[in-house]
Amino acid sequence: MNINDWLNKFKYSWENKNIDDVLLLFSANVIYYETPFHKLNGLDEIKKEWLAILDQNEIDLRYSVFSIDDNKYTIQWDLKYFSKDGNQFHFSGVYLIKLNEMGLCDEFRHYCEKDTF
After folding, report:
1. What's the gap between Cα 108 and its chain centre?
2. pLDDT digits over 87-110, tens only?
3. Which of 47, 51, 94, 109 has the fewest CB neighbours in a 10 Å radius?
4. Interatomic CA distance for residues 37 and 18, integer angstroms
5. Containing H/E element for 45?
C-alpha cells in the first residue's frame, strides 16, 4: 500500500467513525505518539484514544503529502468537525508516518494546533 492509499483509508475510516478500520492501518508494534510527549503503547491504547471520534460529527479531514523520504512521509493536514453538543473545532498540523513493506504504519507522530475562533 502506498502513502496515498493509506491516507485515503485513514480519512475514510475517520470520517465514517470506523475505529477498527483505522487500527488495521497500523502494525502491532507501531510507535505511536498522540503528542510529542504522549506515547501510546499498543493497539489497545490507540483504540481508547480513537474512541473520541464517536463524539465528532460532520468530520472533514484534508491532507497533502509534504515530503517523502523512502518509506517516511510528512503529511500536512487540516481537520474540522462539530462536537455532539454542536461546538465547532478546527485543528491543523503535521503527521510523521513511516510505512513498512506491508504498507502498515510502523511509526506515527502527531503534531497539531487548535484554532481558536
Report:
1. 8
2. 999 999 999 999 999 999 999 999
3. 51
4. 26
5. helix 42-50
> Domain of 81?
3-114
Point out which residues pair with 32 in neighbouring strands: 40, 108
Per cent of the chain over pLDDT 90 is 97
Q: Locate 14 and state its grid cell.
A: 475517520
For cell 479531514, what's the residue?
Answer: 61
Residue 103 is given by DSSP the state S
User: Residue 60's domain is classified under what CATH number?
Assistant: 3.10.450.50
Phi, psi angles (nearest 5°) of residue 21: -70, -35
DSSP annotation string for 30-42: EEEEEETTEEE-H
Number of structural domains in the chain? 1
In this structure, are residues 88 and 60 in contact, taking their beta carbons and an 8 Å threshold?
no
Q: Which portions of the chain are predicted below pLDDT 70? A: 117
